[in-house]
């Protein structure tokens, strides 16, 4: 196992599509991701991407959109990075960072969409500011998408989901077109997840747990 980790860390250090603190170009492309991707296509993020099932899955389906997966765990990012290269995907990138630092990598208006897929629910009240669908992060997403943008959220955790719905009532977020379901696989929104399932999602489905899903648009400021 230690050898596998060393090989993955070496990969992360050398591969071109993964940005981490040890690299000189770690924050180089802020405001200028078109130089990395060599195009001006829209940028969509998967925050807390884990094994990056959505980053890689959506990138394969939508070659005219650039997808960037972000996570703090290098071993998880290795999976998405290596899958992208094996599949010949040129419209993906990965960043190792704490997600509260998103604005160190993107300028306002540079992001057109964000997927939040099965984040840690952070159930303790003392952890509320770390919930990726909480108000702190929604305000970050809002600042990255001042000209409008879409947010998609999937979770098995009903408490976190209902908390998120309350957060979205905050008038300053200026959202529209909110739709949601407490049981994605029994709703007419099912096609919207493109048949992509995370590892966590598969586990929960096998246990008979319902999957919550919502999407909304940020109105232009």
User: Number of DSSP strands?
Assistant: 8
CATH homologous superfamily title: Vaccinia Virus protein VP39
Proportion of strand residues:
15-25%
Helix and strand element order: HEHEHEHEEHEHEHE
Q: Describe the biggest sheet?
A: 8 strands, mixed
Q: How many domains make up the coordinates?
A: 1
Biggest sheet: strands side by side, in what order?
Answer: 1-4-3-2-5-6-8-7
Percent helix, as a range, is 25-40%
Helix count equals 7
Low-confidence stretches: none
Backbone shape: globular
Note the gap between the termini.
Answer: 50 Å
Average residue-wise pLDDT? 93
* CATH fold description: Rossmann fold
The CATH class assignment is Alpha Beta
C-alpha Rg, in Å?
Answer: 17 Å
* Alpha-beta content class: alpha/beta
Short description:
The chain is an alpha/beta fold and 221 residues long. The chain is built from 7 helices and 8 strands, in the order H-E-H-E-H-E-H-E-E-H-E-H-E-H-E.
Descriptive notes:
- With 221 residues, the protein is an alpha/beta fold.
- Helices cover 31% and strands 20% of the residues.
- The protein is built from seven helices and eight strands.
- It has an eight-stranded mixed sheet, with helices on both faces.
- The longest helix has 14 residues.
């Amino acid at each position: 196992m230690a050898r596998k980790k060393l090989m993955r860390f070496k990969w992360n250090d050398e591969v071109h599509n993964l940005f981490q603190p040890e690299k000189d170009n770690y924050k180089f492309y802020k405001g200028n991701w078109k130089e990395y991707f060599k195009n001006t296509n829209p940028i969509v993020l998967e925050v807390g991407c884990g094994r990056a099932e959505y980053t890689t899955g959506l990138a394969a389906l939508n070659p005219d959109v650039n997808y960037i997966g972000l996570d703090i765990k290098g071993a998880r990012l290795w999976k998405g990075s290596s899958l992208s290269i094996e599949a010949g995907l040129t419209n993906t990138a990965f960043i190792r960072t704490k997600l509260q630092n998103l604005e160190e990598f993107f300028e306002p208006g540079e992001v057109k969409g964000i997927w939040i897929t099965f984040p840690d629910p952070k159930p303790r009240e003392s952890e509320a500011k770390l919930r990726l669908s909480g108000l702190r992060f929604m305000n970050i997403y809002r600042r990255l998408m001042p000209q409008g943008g879409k947010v998609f959220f999937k979770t098995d955790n009903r408490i976190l989901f209902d908390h998120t719905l309350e957060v979205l009532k905050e008038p300053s977020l200026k959202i529209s077109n909110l739709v949601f379901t407490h049981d994605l696989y029994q709703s007419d929104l099912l096609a919207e997840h493109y048949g992509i399932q995370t590892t966590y999602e598969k586990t929960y489905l096998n246990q008979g747990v319902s999957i919550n899903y919502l999407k909304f648009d940020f109105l232009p400021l």
